[in-house]
Amino acid sequence: MPGEPYQKGAGALRSDARHNRERILAAAREAYAARGIDVPLTAIARRAGVGVATLYRRFPTRAALVAEAFAEQLAVCAGLLDDALADPDPWRGFCTVVEKVCVMQAVDRGFTAAFLAQFPDGGTDYEQVRRRAEDGLVELVRRAKADGRLRADFAVSDLTLVLLANAGVAAEPQEVAVAASRRLAAYLLQSFRAQGARPLPPPAPLGLRNVHAGSR
Asked: Which residue in 10, 51, 48 sits closest to 30, CA to CA?
């Protein structure tokens, strides 16, 4: 048929474009996991084996690339918060979030930075997820306090302290980082219990975006 060669060519083009896209996303995930989201797009293009122009055709902004690279992890994090809020045991829900987010941070530095970053060039989805996370954490803290097992002077900003402290283990090999993260979280959760709590200094004026700034 006269149109057949064109159709095959178009199919090959679509296949190449899809392959390039997958290579770019794989390279971005690897680079972000190792170095955070400040990796230059030119370095990601080199890692993927494509030209910079090809990368920009698929992902016109850094925010677009980060959002696509970490879409699955964002869904996991949102689901984690939803599950914790649905848990009838407020303290267990609170502890689960602390433990799992710390492990996620230890395994993948890029995801933590991506989740907490703000993008002036169009990262509206990320801003919505970040705000949803902050609201969810506030509610988890409120419930755990009302249940009587989270110390009364615990502040939501103390969760930022947890992530800042945990960020220090992310530079270690993954197996070591995960083990260290779990032990650190266990230590901290014991100190968060209301039973036997002693007064602390005032909370620091920190928010989730401070974790991203501190990880650079």
From this structure: 48
Tokens representing 168 are: 């220090």
Domain extent, residue 198, equals 71-214
In one-letter notation, the amino acid at residue 182 is: R
- Reduce the DSSP state of residue 193 to 3 states and report it: strand
Angle at 5 between CA 12 and CA 24, to 5 degrees: 10
Whole-prediction pTM:
0.72
Label residue 147 by pLDDT band (50, 70, 90). very high
The answer on 175 and 106 residing in a single domain is yes
DSSP notation for 157-169 = HHHHHHHHHHHTT
- In the predicted model, is pLDDT for residue 118 greater than 60? no
The pair phi, psi for residue 59, each rounded to 5°, is -135, 95
pLDDT in tens, 59-69: 988 888 988 88
